Amino acid sequence: LLVLAGPGSGKTRVITRRIAHLIEAGVYPGRILALTFTNKAANEMGQRVEALLPGTRVWVSTFHRFCSKLLRRYGTLVGLQPNFSILDTSDQSTVMREVLSEENIDSTHFSPGKLLGRISRAKQKLQAAEEFAKQVAEGRRVTSTRSPPAFTGSTRKCCCVRTPSISMIS
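Given the sequence above, the corresponding structure tokens read:
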């Protein structure tokens, strides 16, 4: 079940009632997974399910928390170590600056923050890294177009992953 609606439209109520209906129809609660975007919504949803069916435990989580758990368990299948770290914004910028320096790319041409945003958008569009690097380099005096793939490689080398990448990787 996927519910897309604006704030205050009753999404949580619809989902919790659906969960209760599934359980009452005989679905084992451990086979139900409810995902949302915020911790607040996940907590509220869990409380509402508990109120509807006391003692029933279903897995209610945020997308990022769920994907992080999935990657901790199965990340080696995609080249991640189970002890990976999640980079915050500051750490991401630091790694990007290091990659730009290693690639001899002048960071005045590429703001690390803007480049990170472009990488996120390209990943959301499932754009190939090589295609993205070529697109970024067009119109710039850049001899290397490896920075986005190099950034991903650098984060993997230090056992790190960016928050926006968690759901893409898993």
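Confidence is low (pLDDT under 50) at residues 141-147. Try to locate this feature in the token string yourself.
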